[in-house]
Design brief:
Blueprint: E1 5-9, H1 12-17, E2 22-28, H2 33-38, E3 44-50, E4 56-62, H3 66-78, H4 83-87, H5 98-109, H6 114-127
Antiparallel strand pairs: 1-4, 2-3, 3-4
Length: 129
């Protein structure tokens, strides 16, 4: 297909039918710098994690080279790596797989408590002076 489609694990529909709670993170390819540079902004990356754990339940790529990018997610699922662990991986920049990093970073942002978020914002404001 054009763009390619690659999927592994649970879909939102299958999870709903099995009454499995998920957190879903979606990155549109028009937010990925390499996709913009290559003029290949059609598509998205969507990853599902078991609610509150970050453990990956499934993922879908609809994008050029989706079949090449799904490998990292498949490896993470096989070895029980969470989105938190993927957020710590150094991804070459700019690459199409930056979508994975962006989704993992979105997951990590959900881990900030309101108090920690406020402290972090004050620290950043102080650093800008």
């Amino acid at each position: 297909t054009d763009p390619e489609v690659a999927h592994v694990g649970l879909t939102e529909k299958a999870a709903a039918e099995a009454d499995v709670a998920l957190d879903t993170f979606t990155v549109d390819m028009d937010a990925v710098d390499r996709a913009i540079l290559d003029g290949e902004t059609e598509g998205f990356f969507k990853v599902h994690a078991y609610k509150g754990s970050g453990r990956i339940a499934g993922a879908t790529f609809v994008a050029p080279r989706a079949g090449e990018m799904i490998n990292e997610i498949t490896l993470a699922m096989t070895h029980g790596l969470s989105l938190g662990k993927l957020a710590r991986v150094i991804h070459p920049y700019p690459t199409q797989a930056e979508a994975i990093k962006k989704a993992a970073d979105a997951y990590m942002r959900t881990k900030f408590s309101p108090r920690l978020k406020a402290l972090f914002q004050r620290w950043l404001a102080f650093q800008r002076r």
